Structure formats: structure tokens, C-alpha cells
Amino acid sequence: MIFHIAVCSPDPVLRGRVQRHCMEYYARRADACIVEQLESTAALLRQEEAGSRYELYLIELPAANPCSGLQAAAELRRRGVRAPLAFLAHTTAYAYEAFRVNAMQYLHIPFRPEQLTALLDRATEPEYGPVIPVATAMGLRALPFADIEYLECTHHVVHYHLASGEDVASLSLRVPFSEVAKPLLADARFLQPHRSYVVNLAAAAQLSAGELWMRSGARVPIPRGREPAVRAAFRAFLEG
Which key words tag this protein in UniProt (predicted)? Predict the structure, then answer.
């Protein structure tokens, strides 16, 4: 597969650094990669209008005008672009706004090479990512981690709520829920805020008193004693 990546930034040094890292990353995987450098969000939107499509959008929020990147991302989503999108920013002040346009990640500049590698791992996950096997009434399903929004365990049945809106119900459990969730909790994206729930922080929209709101609109309860730990974990995830 050839991965097409758009790198949008007014800074040619940053664009070049990101391009080199992407090229080296996909070369290690023996995959091809095409990186298009775009110096403005206007150029990015023109490319989209002309029919250019990318597997990943990396958009800088420049210190002089950070809202331009957020507005461009919102416009891409309005036009139906569903590809992974991430922001490179000089401040964490816009992290929550970034996730409102379904951003996959928000990297604080200067970022470490391993942070960009982790971002590319997540963007490439539909091809290479882990899956969890689930025994259902219809047979065995393999659910990619990236597709899971949250898990809910009720009456010894685990409901895998997917980002697509599908609810995949397991057969009745013969092991504790904690054992079922163990593979997910070994992944930094997943957190258990409640004994009956495991959430994918990449699919979380906001944290309010006693609840974690998912992008689908679902609300996951958080016991009062767990709120500080959940808040800290969510903030750490958003800040990369």
C-alpha cells in the first residue's frame, strides 16, 4: 500500500522534519509513502477540492494563527473527510477544540521522534494494528482496537460499543471482566474508569463531573473516588 500524507505548516523546517520521519518510518515497514508539503491551510483545502485524498493529515496550529488549522480541519470534516487527522501545536490550549473535530492526536511542539512514530503507528493501525477476539452468538469476531469506543459489562455479557455505532455482545463470560479487558488495558489508549467499563481515550470527547462523554454521545459513569485519576489520565493522553 502507498500511504499519502499531507503535512500542512507555514514552517518549511517543520515540514521537512516531519516528511523525513514519515519516509523513514514507512521504509522500515517496507511500504511506500508519499508526503505532500503544504504551506497553508488554504492550499490544503484547495488540494482537497481538486480531488487529492490522503490517509493522514498533519496540520500545524501556528502560534500566529492557531485557529486557521482548527477551522481547516472542521471544513475537511464538513466535506466528509474521515481520514485520521492530527495537530502539531505550540501550546496545549487548543487540545480540547482539536478533539471536537475528531483529531486522532495532538502533539505539542517540540515533540520527540518517538511521539511522531507512535502517531504513525496509530494512523497505520487499520493495516497493522492489534485486534481482540470476541466469541459471539454469530461466531468469533476479531475487533480492531481502533474500532472500539468502550466496553460495558452487564449480567456477565460484555458489550463492545464500536465507533461505527455497532454493539457487539459477547457470549456469557466464564472469566472475570478484568481478564477480558487485560489485552486492551495493556494499550495506553484504554482505561478502566469503572469496574464495569473500559474506555478508549482516543474516542472520548470530554470529561465532566461523574461522567466521561464519548464521541458517540454515550456517557460512561465515573465513581467519585476515581475522578482525579481519570482526569489525570485523560489529560496525559490528550497532551501526548
Answer: DNA-binding
* DSSP helix/strand/coil, 124: coil
pLDDT one-digit tens code per residue, 37-85: 999 999 999 999 999 999 999 999 999 999 999 999 999 999 999 889 9
Residue spans per domain, the chain:
2-127, 130-238
Q: What's the one-letter identity of residue 169? A: A
Q: What's the CA gap between 57 and 59, in Å, rounded?
A: 6
- 2-127 and 130-238 share one fold: no
CA distance 149 to 36: 31
pLDDT at 150 over 80: yes
Please state the rounded mean pLDDT for residues 203-215. 91
pTM confidence score: 0.59
CATH architecture of 2-127: 3-Layer(aba) Sandwich (3.40)
Q: Give the CATH number of domain 130-238.
A: 2.40.50.1020
What would the pLDDT profile of 103-134 be if each residue is shown by its tens digit? 888 899 999 898 898 888 878 876 556 889 99
DSSP 8-state secondary structure symbol assigned to residue 170: P
Contact 145, 160 (CB under 8 A): no
Alpha helix ranges (H) inside the chain: 12-28, 41-49, 66-78, 95-99, 113-123, 125-128, 177-185, 227-238
- Helix 66-78 crosses helix 41-49 at what angle (to 10 degrees)? 10
Whether pLDDT at 182 is above 70: yes
